[in-house]
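Q: what sequence does this backbone want?
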């Protein structure tokens, strides 16, 4: 039985260590959120759909094919029965199709800017929740240290009171401090559950799925001054790109509206077959 007992003991000791997941990092959490969040997928599908619609908008309308039969069955008349085969094609006024395609392309650009904005907001929300969880862990560590100290002081006060060297008010004050730290720890546990639920919601996972304790990683420093940051924001901010796309779309639609007064051309070819 000794070898079996040794194997069982080894398994008990090894299993908890293997089950512990690696602590997440802020960058890993952001990558997972951007990969799994449904709102990002929905905006990607909308952007791709507008791209396909723009390609279709630059194509001529579908031709129409007709087959018509006249004077069948033949009546008592000199006219002969006839079958007509006809193909009709609509030709929009020159310039209308490119403008229609350009307008939808600008909608696609605006949808792409909206997608980038959503990604930035998710990145911000993920990092905010991550550092909330990190701060909560540090506060719980401080709470445990303070409680251990308060328990030691309460035990010392109780010992002094039992020997007649201290008053009962010292014991009560120390015990009240221990209870206050217990209440604070309960509140911190609730805050941690909230932060975990926020992270799991961003990752599209069950709200109560456990997560490891985050680790503090120093953020990279930047040497850019405020003016350089403002210039880069003006050039790259998705909100501004989206507004410029909306402006270009409105300008294109105005040009298209000016061409609406020009007529489209309908071309048709037909052949009559006498029966």
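A:
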């Amino acid at each position: 039985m000794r070898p079996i007992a040794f194997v069982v003991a080894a398994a008990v000791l090894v299993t908890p260590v293997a089950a512990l997941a690696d602590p997440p990092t802020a960058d890993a959490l952001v990558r997972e959120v951007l990969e799994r969040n449904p709102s990002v997928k929905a905006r990607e599908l909308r952007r791709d759909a507008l791209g396909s619609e723009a390609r279709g908008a630059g194509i001529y309308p579908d031709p129409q094919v007709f087959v018509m039969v006249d004077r069948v069955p033949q009546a008592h008349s000199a006219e002969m029965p006839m079958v007509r085969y006809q193909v009709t094609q609509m030709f929009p006024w020159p310039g209308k199709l490119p403008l229609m395609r350009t307008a939808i392309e600008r909608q696609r650009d605006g949808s792409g800017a909206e997608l980038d904005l959503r990604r930035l907001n998710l990145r911000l929300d993920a990092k905010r929740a991550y550092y909330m969880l990190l701060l909560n862990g540090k506060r719980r560590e401080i709470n445990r240290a303070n409680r251990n100290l308060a328990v030691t002081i309460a035990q010392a006060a109780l010992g002094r009171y039992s020997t007649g060297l201290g008053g009962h008010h010292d014991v009560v004050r120390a015990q009240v401090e221990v209870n206050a730290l217990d209440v604070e720890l309960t509140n911190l546990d609730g805050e941690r559950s909230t932060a975990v639920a926020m992270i799991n919601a961003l990752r599209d996972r069950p709200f109560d799925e456990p997560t490891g304790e985050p680790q503090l990683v120093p953020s990279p420093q930047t040497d850019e001054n405020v003016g350089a940051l403002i210039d880069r924001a003006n050039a790259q901010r998705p909100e501004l790109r989206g507004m410029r796309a909306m402006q270009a779309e409105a300008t294109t639609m105005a040009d298209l509206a000016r061409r609406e007064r020009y007529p489209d051309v309908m071309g048709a070819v037909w052949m009559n077959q006498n029966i």
